């Protein structure tokens, strides 16, 4: 089968098998240099991938494109089968609500307690308050914050804030989880526990993409890997990028 997924097919196949699809995507910020040239990959429904690469390789930018904070300078991106480069802006929030995002800088609401930060996506989606009172403390206890339900973010450590941010991202069982360095501020034991949480979510059907510098984590969990180097996607597979990474990802055929 060819890689051709023209606009018509993407529009007519909103629940197709790819949750994220990049086709020849390029990105530059304002008048700066191109961060990427011609990146293409697909994340199938229910898949689990790490996104790796050195500092400045473009990991957060890929995530920003996925959660629609950024628009590509060229190429096409589809999410849940919708071509988002053509979709009217008013329809984007509906797609965003299907995603859980863990930001590198957490983006918690400082005047709300940990409990209320995590409850936010449930309240937005109209979940009954009784369910919120049951599920949120359970999840916060699972990430080791049972004693901090009422703490406000400014009183929490970096690792504790990170776990609140993760709980908020997963509480709604999103269709797509995007996490930027989700274990960057926690010790190994908690890092493993968080990875197990992502695995559980993945088993229930969530597609997972985790940007990380943590090689140990990537080695311990045998999932797919997208590796960025100098503005190019140089490896898309399981395990380590081969030494001659320049040839690891063949260019995708351009659509006519
Ligand atoms: N808002 C911005 N304006 C201009 N340039 C930016 C902006 N954000 C990122 N960049 C540039 O884009 C490139 C990729 O940055 P990005 O944050 O995506 O990399 P990263 O792989 O996530 O890095 P790190 O691992 O250090 O977080 C870098 O050269 C960075 O300077």
UniProtKB/TrEMBL annotation:
It comes from Rhodospira trueperi. Signal peptide: none annotated. Belongs to the ABC transporter superfamily. This is Cell division ATP-binding protein FtsE. Residues 234-256 are annotated as: Disordered. It comes from the Bacteria. Homodimer. Forms a membrane-associated complex with FtsX. The keyword Cell division applies. The keyword Signal does not apply. The gene is ftsE.
